[in-house]
Amino acid sequence: MTSQVSSPAEQADEAVVGEQRKAAGAKDVRRLDRVIIRFAGDSGDGMQLTGDRFTSETASFGNDLSTLPNFPAEIRAPAGTLPGVSSFQLHFADHDILTPGDAPNVLVAMNPAALKANIGDLPRGAEVIVNTDEFTKRAMQKVGYATSPLEDGSLDGYQVHPVPLTTLTVEALKEFDLTRKEAERSKNMFALGLLSWMYHRPTEGTERFLRSKFAKKPDIAAANIAAFRAGWNFGETTEDFAVSYEVAPAATAFPPGVYRNISGNLALSYGLIAASRQADLPLYLGSYPITPASDILHELSKHKNFGVRTFQAEDEIAGIGAALGAAFGGSLAVTTTSGPGVALKSETIGLAVSLELPLLIVDIQRGGPSTGLPTKTEQADLLQAMYGRNGEAPVPVVAPRTPADCFDAALEAARIALTYRTPVFLLSDGYLANGSEPWRVPDLEELPDLRVQFAQGPNHTLDDGTEVFWPYKRDPQTLARPWAIPGTPGLEHRIGGIEKEDGTGNISYAPANHDFMVRTRQAKIDGIEVPDLDVDDPDEARTLVLGWGSTYGPITAAVRRLRRAGESIAQAHLRHLNPFPKNLGAVLGRYDKVVIPEMNLGQLATLIRAKYLVDAQSYNQVNGMPFKAEQLAAALKEAIDG
What we know:
Layout: H1 8-23, E1 28-32, E2 34-42, H2 47-61, E3 64-70, E4 85-93, E5 106-109, H3 112-118, E6 127-131, H4 137-142, E7 159-163, H5 165-172, H6 180-184, H7 187-198, H8 204-213, H9 218-237, E8 243-247, E9 259-263, H10 264-279, E10 283-287, H11 294-300, E11 308-312, H12 316-328, E12 332-337, H13 339-355, E13 359-365, H14 382-387, E14 397-398, H15 405-420, E15 423-429, H16 430-434, E16 436-440, E17 460-461, E18 467-468, H17 511-526, E19 535-536, E20 543-548, H18 552-564, E21 570-574, E22 576-578, H19 584-589, E23 593-598, H20 603-612, E24 617-620, H21 629-641
Parallel strand pairs: 1-8, 2-5, 5-6, 6-7, 10-11, 10-12, 12-13, 13-15, 14-15, 20-21, 20-23, 23-24
Antiparallel strand pairs: 2-4, 3-4, 9-16, 14-22, 17-18, 19-21
Helix pairs in contact: 2-7, 5-7, 7-9, 8-9, 10-11, 10-15, 12-13, 18-21
Domain Pyruvate flavodoxin/ferredoxin oxidoreductase pyrimidine binding: 286-501
Domain Pyruvate/ketoisovalerate oxidoreductase catalytic: 44-231
Region (Disordered): 1-23
């Protein structure tokens, strides 16, 4: 673990205080600038809840943080097996951080499977807290341990803390009228209490949470709180934990404001609600549950008070069909899905392109192809979003870079959809969706004005002087067609997938008209106003690292490492992938080398090479996990030196 650097005088003072504490029988307290903790156990051990509560208390304490939940795709994988291991990693610090961390400083392993699945990620000297009660002969054999790793010396390079978590929890709850199995379920709260003591985390929020969560079962709430307090007290009294740690709040990492911890899917949900309010339109979500996008459906269904309507359809096609119908009716329409769902929605997305109606397609990407890796992350839907439809059907593509940035990306996607009357792809991924970080709650004055003007009457005069409504008469600036709400007198018009005649919207098979309409729809997308690409280049470097989406955190962390080591490297990150920023070509032309890290086999690199004729170098990973900063730094150093 990295220690915060103190001056000689401060070190002397700390030494005196440490001696005084030892003389008084108090435990040593060490100050750190950052810590990476991973909770790991069986998928029924409550590791996600434990990590989430530790994260919430850390956020309330004021640390900067980044999280990485990692769980099986199966609802309940076989107990005690490697495929059934669920983990939650949290990186928190007294300064600005960007990733959940490369390697844990502390591993809490609730069983042999959790230890075996995660021990390879730990650096030597890391702390390992193991639940010894679960290290039975049968449990160890199930994951391939011939001998106990707690006794055979294989963990000698780590600081191992053997703790009988299950026994201690059951003993702490013996006064409650619970069966042993019921009592054992609280062992995650015992572990949470112990870690909360070790790192001086607040406890009041967790106790409030437990009372609220089990409000209808006060005995269960009381038992969990008792287990949580027992874990805290165990840390305070046991001799095995002689040291606790302090990580000060990240006072200088955040601009002034009100902050909360937020996941990508929650930020995206709030962004959609904010967009509907700023547009003064009802929000309609037509969706079908799919990992890792389902949380958006769950969250939006809670906000009927903001005029949100959610429709859980029978399948992906019905979900987007209902959303497109809502767009025709004047709503801010959204459909949420992952890659397999995008494949099913593709025909209706093409219909939305033809109808030229605003529609947000939110794709929370996961590993593929087909069903692939439902709970693992990937960036492999970019080319599908760009070209995954029949005919020439261009669609804008927007990608957030961090969990909190999902809020702003939702607003930006809505701006483009409403202004240009087009479906828009918003490409998040599992890493952003489930990960979390501090988010500054914006003031209403900071949000963009997204209000639109519906068509109210005739907009075209025929040669004989008759005033009529032409549904495909375009705004000369944006090339957007008018948005006419059904039922408005005099604005009746045809819709459907057959090609429209320019202006009138009548069905047309004329070759010249089709050519014109295809080129016009493309010109509309090409003409979308997006901000120029910002480049971070303090030293006029020769090498540029270009990223998009969730690679922002690992890339930025890697760039920081290289610059601290004296290397010169520039960084730029794309939010708009279609159309690209107008200055992208000029930016690429300034550098001898361009490196593009992606969690796919080089999809953005393919687009960059094709459009700008730049020999971009790909650095790719498709293992279902985000990049590690150290790994990226090594690859970028090799590119600089090559």
